[in-house]
C-alpha cells in the first residue's frame, strides 16, 4: 500500500523568494526520504492553492494525504484557516482521506536550525555567553503562539546565551529594534538576531530592518537540514496517530 502523500502547506507570499525557499526545503526533505511523494501548497497568494493541489492529487488517484503545516506555532492559520480549507476539500473529495499534522514548533530540531543559522552568520558556540539573542518571529495575536515563543526564548537562555528576548515583526510588542536595545541595556557585549521564520517576505524584511543595530543577523531557517527532518517527523507522527478517522482535522 502506498504511503500517504506528504502535502507541505506554507503560508504564501507575494514575494517570490518565499515560494522558492519553500520548494528548496521540500527538495531537502525529498533527499532525506527518496521515494516519498511530496507536494507543496500555499494558503495565500500562490496559484498552488491547497484546494487546487488536493483536487489534482485526487484526480491522479491519491487515496491519502497528510497535510503538514509549515507553520512554527499554533496560531490562526493552524487552528482555523487550514482546518477549514481541508474540511471543505474533504467534503468535495470524499475518496481522499485527509489528515492534518502538527505544526513544526516547538522542537529541539527547530532550536538546532536556529543555531545553525547563527553559526553560519559568524558566531561560534563559545560566543553564547557574551552574546544577547533576539528571537524574532513574525508575530501573532494568539496567546498560545506568543507563549510558545516565550518558552523557546527561555529554553535558549538555558543553553548559555548572555540573555534572550523574544521580538515580533507584527501584532505584538516588542519589535526587533526595541529588543536589541534592551539587550544592550542588559550589558550583553554583543547582540545577535535570530529570525524564527521559514522563508523571506515582508515580515522577515521588517525583522532585518529592526536588526540594523545588532552585531549579527542570522538568515531565515529556509532549507536547514534540521527543518527538513522536523517536517518528516511531523508527517510520521500524523501517520502513527491512533484513533483517527478518514478526515482527522482539528476542530
Automatic annotation (TrEMBL):
Domain of life: Bacteria
Pfam family of the protein (one): CbiX
Keyword Lyase: yes
InterPro entries: CbiX-like, Sirohydro_Cobaltochel/CbiX
UniProt entry keywords in alphabetical sequence: Lyase, Metal-binding
Gene Ontology molecular function, alphabetical: lyase activity; metal ion binding
Classification via SUPFAM superfamilies: Chelatase (SSF53800)
Protein name (Swiss-Prot/TrEMBL): Secreted protein
Amino acid at each position: 500500500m502506498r504511503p500517504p502523500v506528504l502535502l507541505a502547506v506554507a503560508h504564501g507570499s507575494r514575494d517570490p523568494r518565499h515560494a522558492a525557499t519553500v520548494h528548496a526545503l521540500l527538495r531537502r526533505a525529498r533527499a532525506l526520504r527518496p521515494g516519498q511523494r511530496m507536494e507543496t501548497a500555499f494558503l495565500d497568494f500562490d496559484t498552488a492553492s491547497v484546494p487546487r493541489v488536493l483536487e489534482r492529487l485526487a484526480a491522479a488517484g491519491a487515496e491519502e494525504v497528510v497535510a503538514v503545516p509549515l507553520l512554527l506555532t499554533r496560531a490562526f492559520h493552524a487552528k482555523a484557516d487550514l482546518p477549514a480549507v481541508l474540511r471543505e476539500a474533504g467534503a468535495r473529495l470524499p475518496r481522499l482521506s485527509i489528515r492534518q499534522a502538527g505544526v513544526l514548533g516547538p522542537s529541539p530540531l527547530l532550536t538546532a536550525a536556529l543555531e545553525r543559522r547563527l553559526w553560519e552568520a559568524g558566531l561560534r558556540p563559545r560566543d553564547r555567553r557574551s552574546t544577547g539573542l533576539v528571537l524574532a518571529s513574525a508575530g501573532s495575536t494568539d496567546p498560545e503562539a506568543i507563549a510558545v515563543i516565550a518558552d523557546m526564548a527561555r529554553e535558549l537562555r538555558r543553553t548559555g546565551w548572555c540573555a534572550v528576548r523574544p521580538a515580533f515583526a507584527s501584532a505584538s510588542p516588542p519589535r526587533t529594534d526595541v529588543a536589541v536595545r534592551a539587550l544592550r541595556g542588559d550589558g550583553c557585549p554583543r547582540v545577535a538576531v535570530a529570525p524564527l521564520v521559514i522563508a523571506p517576505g515582508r515580515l522577515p524584511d521588517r525583522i532585518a530592518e529592526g536588526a540594523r543595530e545588532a552585531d549579527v543577523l542570522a538568515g531565515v531557517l529556509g532549507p536547514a537540514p534540521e527543518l527538513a527532518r522536523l517536517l518528516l517527523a511531523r508527517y510520521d507522527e500524523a501517520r502513527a496517530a491512533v484513533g483517527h478517522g478518514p478526515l482527522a482535522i482539528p476542530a
